[in-house]
Write a structure and sequence with these properties.
The protein is of the alpha/beta class and 165 residues long. The chain contains three helices and six strands; from the N terminus they run H-E-E-E-H-E-E-E-H. Pfam families: MmcB-like.
């Protein structure tokens, strides 16, 4: 492993996500892939917040999926309204052990069992400003490229020159 890396740390595994949250995430990611939607997890936004999942549709529309693994997880988190400024649609995703009636009606709702997911309620559309969309599209592309390169380096250490001779 290199001493100096262009990546500060692995943004996908930082220990903050519970095992249950990771299962919900996996199911939602599988659903998005089926819907031909590109997904990046743990995306830092310009507001300083971090979206659990940032999704980009073929039409160029952004959705944020906020994962909630328990009633308490939802009750203590008050940052999610800020996400509306960074997406066209806002969803909550959870698992069958969390009552769905706790989630606000003005947000979409996804139920995940870890192997797949289903949209129970579509999120209403609130279009982002065009300048915000352009900046977020560029951020999405840069982060996707950086993560792809990092994955390639992990899979093939000869690319970085760190392989043992």
């Amino acid at each position: 492993m290199p001493i100096v890396s262009p990546f500060r740390r692995d943004p996908l595994v930082d220990g903050r996500q519970s095992e249950r949250a990771m299962l919900v995430r996996r199911g939602v990611q599988r659903l998005m892939i089926q819907m031909r939607v590109s997904v990046l997890p743990e995306i830092p936004l310009v507001s300083g917040r971090r979206a659990d999942l940032l999704c980009l549709s073929e039409k160029g529309e952004f959705s944020i999926v906020e994962i909630k693994s328990s009633i308490e997880d939802f009750r203590v988190d008050r940052k999610w309204p800020d996400y509306r400024l960074h997406c066209d649609r806002l969803y909550f995703a959870t698992h069958p052990g969390v009552p769905v009636d706790i989630f606000p009606e003005d947000c979409g709702l996804i139920l995940s069992d870890g192997y797949g997911a289903e949209i129970l309620r579509e999120a209403p559309e609130t279009r982002m400003a065009s300048a915000t969309r352009k900046a977020l599209t560029l951020r999405f592309a840069r982060l996707a490229s950086d993560r792809l390169l990092q994955a390639e380096w992990v899979a093939n250490p000869y690319m970085t020159g760190d392989a043992a001779d």
